[in-house]
Each structure stands twice: as C-alpha cells, then as structure tokens.
Amino acid sequence: MKKYIAFGLLLFAVGIQNIGAQQMLCLDSCRAMALRNNKQMGVSQLKQEVAVNLRKSARTKYLPHVSAIGSYQFTSEEVSLLNNEQKSSLSNLGTTMAGSLQGLGNGLNSAMAQIGSMLTQLGVPAASFQEMAGNLQQNMQQGITNTAGLLNTEGQKIVDAFRTDTRNIFAGSVLVTQPVFMGGGIVALNKLADINEDFAANSAAARRQAVVYATDQAYWQVVSLKHKQRLAESYLSLIKKFDGDVQKMIVEGVATKSDGLSVSVKVNEAEMTLQRVNDGLVLSKMLLCQMIGLPMNEQITLVDEDSEDLAVVTLKPQLDVERAIENRPELKMLSNTVDMTKQTTNILKAANLPQVALMGGYAVSNPNVLNGFEKKFGGFWNVGVLVRVPLWNWGDVAYKVRASKGATAIAHLELAEAREKIELQVNQNTFKVDESNKRLAMAQTGIERANENLRTANLGFSEGVISPTVVMEAQTAWLQAQSQLIDAQIAVKLSQVELQKALGALEYGN
Question: What is the CATH number of domain 39-69+181-239+308-503?
C-alpha cells in the first residue's frame, strides 16, 4: 500500500506548481483546442494548399507558353562554302589569265614583224616602225600586268566574301507554343487535379473526425475517473465509519475481532482503489492536456466533472446506412481514388493519339545568313504548326493503360469492401447505442435497489440483527452499482460519439 501511496504522491507532485491556475474546459473547447494543436491537422491543411497549387498549375496547360533560348558555341574550324582548289583559282585568276594574254602578245609580235618586213620593202623606214612596235609591245605588256593584278585582287575579294567565320556563333530565340489538341491529355490532367484537391479536402475531414473522436474519448475518460474518484472517496468514508462502529462493538463484546479484521481489509482495499483512481485520473488529464496543447502539468477542470446526470436514456437510434455512405470521408477518398485512376488512364491513352500545337517566335544569330554571311546579329519571325503522330512504341502505352485499368479495378473493389464494412459498422454502433441505453436504464434501477439494500443492512446492523459481513456485502453491492452507473453513463456518451463517427457526422460543433 505504501508503494501505491508514494506513486500517487509522485504523480500529484507534477502539478503542484500551477495548483492555483485551474482552467474550466467544456467538450467543445477541448475539441477546438485539439484541432488547433494536432500536427496532422496542420499536415492536412498543407496538403490542401499543395492540391490547390497543383490544380492552378494544371490550368496553365491550356495557355500559351513563352520561352527564351540563348546560346554561344565555339568551333575549332569554320564552315567553308569553297574548297581549296576553288579558293586558289579565284585568288590567282589574274595570273592565270595573264598567261593566256602573254601568248596572244607573242602572236601579235610575230604579226608585227611580218608587217614591218612588208613595210620596209615598200620603203617605210624600219627604225620608225620598230619604234612604234616597241611602244605597242611595251603598252600591251603593261596592260597585261595591270589586268592580272586587278583580277587577282577581285578573285581574293570573292574568296573573302565567301568566308563564314562560324567559329564563334551567338544565337537566341523567343518561342511561343500554344497547344491545340494533345489527345485529351490536358483535359484529363485538369480533371485529375480537381479530384486530387477534393481528395485532400476529404482527407482533412477524415483527420478532423479522428481528432474529435480521440478528444471525446479522452474527455469522457477523465469525467469517468473523476466521478469514480468521488465514489471511491465516499466508499472509503463509508467503510471507515463502519470500521469505527465495528471497533466499538468489539470493545463492547458484541462483535468479534474476526469481524474487525474483515472490515480493516475492506478499508485497505478502498484506500488502494482510491489511489488507483487518483493515479488514473492524473494520467488521463495528462493525456487530455497533451492532446489539446496544454502543458501536461496544467491544472484543468472539466465542465462535466460535477454533473450528476451524465447521460439520459434516449430513443432508439434509426439505422441510416445511406447517410453514412454519403457522408463518410473515407468512402469519398476511395471514390476519389477510383476517379483518379480513370483520369490517369486517359492521360496514358493520350500518348497514342495525335498531338497538334501552334508555334511562333523570333530567332537571331551572329553571324547571320540573311544578307550573305554578316558578322552581326540578324533575326526573323516564324510561325508554324507542329503535329506529332505516334506510330510504333512496341506496345508500351498499351501495357501502361492495362496496368492503370487494373488499378481502377482494385480501387472499385476496395470501395465496395469499404461500403460493406461501413454498413456493418453503422449497424453495430446503432445496436451499441441501443444496448447502452438499456444498460443505463438497468444501472439506474440497480442504484435504487442497492441504496435500499444498504439502508436495510445498516438499519439491521444498528439493531444488532445483521452481522458486519452482511453490511460489507451490501456496501460492496452499492459500490458496484454506483460504478456500473458511471460506466453506463460514459458508455452512452461514447456510443453516441461512435455512431456519429460511423455516420460521418462527427464534426466540431455538432
């Protein structure tokens, strides 16, 4: 017994620092605080925000996309439009033609010699003709030399003009793409995003109901132990008073020491029971404080702790399976999963259909070929239509579509199984509520009988016609009846909460 007392004192010592700071909490305030404190509720909220952003992202697939591209490339060799022989021919064009003109000059000199001989025979002075022929030959040679140099220069200019200088290339473009038909993939993607957002909302609702359900259980556990604490204190007071009466009777010789020892054992049992209840109450309050975000050593008082009638017998609940199927977030999530797998199948099918997109943009490069090869930036506009038609992929898309349809079939089976389980759960909880009501009614009747039995036993003991053992039995029966009434009242509350959860109607404020 000393161990139990020491353990209880240790547990109570946790809260002595704030013993004066009592907080009065009702069930609704506990629910609200638990929903604010629960980390998974925060995760659910973030998942909803993620789903909203994904849905907004999917909407942008309908709109034209604009992208800018820039590049620089260095190459070790430049692109040449002329081969080496053509470059050499053009560069030596004058020299080549000078050889031909030189042969023409030699023929002309022979003809001039023949003409000079003829003119000498005719009496024309030879010196005059030779001087004239020399001047003509000199002028012709000078002309050939000048023409060869000019042609070589012009040929080199042509070679230089055909140089591309493509070792350093700068390029850039702005591209606008507008999808026209993507095989239904964009439509399916947007539907998938909408379903995903709905799935996140249903997941948050399921988490919300789970938090409320757990909070209700912890709340009513504390209330139950608080009532049992008062009951244990009342029983301990009762058994101690009875122990004092028996001790007086032993002194007077009316009762035996055996009777006194039996009562003392009951006193010890009552003290141990009270200690266990106290320990359980401290731990239960710690759990509730942790759930609602308060320090575990916070001193709290629940509104229903001092309520005499925790629950009343209600009418028999109506079986409402259709309401559960309509409201349960778990079923909605499974239905969302079915729809998501269908849209995934549509996205995969789109890969086997033609895809059409409009394209347009502006491109620049340096060097550019818009006016020969120029070492400066030049650009042009362009528009076009892009058509992609899948021809052969070895059945890759078909296999993926079959796998996705298999996932849809699995989701359908899981949804059907969940409906069956929820129907069974609703039936069980409806029966449980009805059973709890009957149990409460029986417990209330049992209290009346236990009170009357204890009153009769005490009266008979005071008149000396009933032994202490019978009184202790009556006291034990009274304790059990009171405990059963508390359990029945809490069972009614919890069964109602469980039925609301099974119907998908367990929300804060309901």
Answer: 1.20.1600.10
